[in-house]
């Protein structure tokens, strides 16, 4: 059985990477490119969302094609509450987590009774149901979505400043990464990876596989909801495109690029995809073709993703 019994983090490379990320806003402003602070913040948010999907695909073996539903649920939760006059991030972001977790519980309770391609299709069907529900509700802005007049408030830190928002997002991503590492190294994480490798055997030795998968599905949905809430807070605009199936496809591409079942897979995949997209989109309208070529190259020459090209040390073999 392929099982990640321990997922270490090499201290010095990790600290160096964190230091470089922390200094990025300073460098961007020093060279007169403050736009890249917002872009880097967006990369960090998608790294969080892709990592939540990586938990399902890489560590539980659940290929969900409806993950965007939880992203959209978190984003719309923040937008609706801010429209009602609530501006505290201490209330908005936890609310996004709770709403997305409840939606994941509902969808997962039904979807996890299926397996394989049927699971993929039913998660897609649920996500599309949520998408068309949002589009049909005028109170949610229908096709136009909702616009936020300001960013949430942390009280002690002004999130209207892009550098401050970036710092908060970096702290959240690091906390999420450490939490994911702790989860995967805990007995629950080992059980989930056992289900990924041989669910029938895990059932035979007495593990409640359905409940464990549902728990993982809810955790991943909650993390994606937090990412959606952060995305709404950053952009100041929430639209139904966040819930549409192409968004789920983009998240899956990020996981594949970075490496499914690798601790840093979601982070590397999100960074690679968004950077390549940003670099090419300004040059040609056919940038999706370039993304396809990159994805094809990774699948053929680096089947374990970009993180598989790194030295073994932060992920399962």
3D architecture notes:
With 317 residues, this protein is an all-alpha fold. It has 12 helices and 2 strands. The protein has helices spanning 11-30, 35-59, 68-83, 89-111, 117-136, 162-185, 187-204, 209-235, 245-258, 265-281, 287-301, 306-309, and strands spanning 146-147, 237-238. Helix 6 (162-185) packs across helix 7 and helix 7 (187-204) packs across helix 8 (209-235). The relative contact order is 0.19.
| Overall 3D form | globular
The count of helical stretches stands at 12
The neighbouring-strand order within the major sheet is 1-2
Helix content: over 70%
Q: Per DSSP, what share of the residues sits in E-state strands of 2 or more residues?
A: under 5%
Quickly give the structural class. Answer: mainly alpha
Low-confidence runs: 1-6, 312-317
The Rg value, from CA coordinates, equals: 19 Å
H/E element order = HHHHHEHHHEHHHH
End-to-end Cα distance: 11 Å
Task: Specify the biggest β-sheet.
Answer: 2 strands, antiparallel
Keywords:
disordered C terminus, globular, disordered N terminus, 317 residues, mainly alpha, two-stranded antiparallel ribbon, 1% strand, single chain
Question: What's the short story on this structure?
Answer:
With 317 residues, the protein is mainly alpha-helical. It has helices spanning 11-30, 35-59, 68-83, 89-111, 117-136, 162-185, 187-204, 209-235, 245-258, 265-281, 287-301, 306-309, and strands at 146-147, 237-238.
């Amino acid at each position: 059985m392929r099982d990640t019994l321990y997922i270490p983090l090499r201290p010095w490379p990790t600290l160096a990477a964190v230091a470089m990320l922390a200094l990025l806003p300073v460098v961007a402003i020093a060279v007169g490119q403050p736009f890249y602070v917002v872009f880097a913040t967006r990369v960090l948010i998608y790294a969080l969302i892709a990592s939540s999907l990586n938990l399902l695909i890489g560590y539980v073996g659940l290929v969900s094609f409806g993950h965007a539903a939880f992203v959209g649920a978190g984003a719309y939760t923040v937008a609706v509450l801010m429209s009602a006059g609530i501006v505290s991030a201490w209330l908005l972001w936890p609310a996004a987590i709770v709403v997305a977790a409840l939606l994941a519980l509902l969808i997962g309770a039904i979807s996890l009774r299926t397996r394989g391609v049927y699971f993929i299709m039913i998660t897609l069907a649920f996500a599309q149901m949520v998408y068309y529900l949002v589009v049909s509700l005028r109170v949610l802005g229908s096709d136009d979505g909702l616009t936020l007049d300001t960013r949430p408030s942390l009280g002690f830190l002004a999130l209207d400043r892009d550098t401050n928002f970036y710092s908060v997002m970096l702290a959240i991503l690091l906390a999420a990464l450490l939490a994911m590492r702790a989860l995967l190294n805990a007995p629950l994480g080992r059980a989930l990876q056992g289900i990924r490798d041989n669910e029938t055997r895990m059932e035979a030795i007495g593990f409640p596989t359905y409940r464990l998968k549902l728990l993982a599905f809810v955790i991943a949905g909650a993390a994606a909801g937090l990412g959606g809430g952060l995305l709404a807070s950053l952009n100041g605009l929430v639209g139904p495109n966040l819930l549409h199936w192409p968004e789920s496809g983009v998240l899956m591409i990020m996981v594949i690029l970075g490496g499914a079942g690798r601790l840093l897979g979601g982070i590397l995949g999100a960074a690679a995809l968004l950077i390549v997209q940003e670099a090419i989109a300004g040059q040609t309208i056919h940038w999706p073709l370039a993304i396809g070529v990159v994805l094809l190259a990774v699948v053929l020459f680096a089947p374990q993703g970009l993180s598989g090209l790194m030295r073994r040390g932060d992920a399962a073999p």
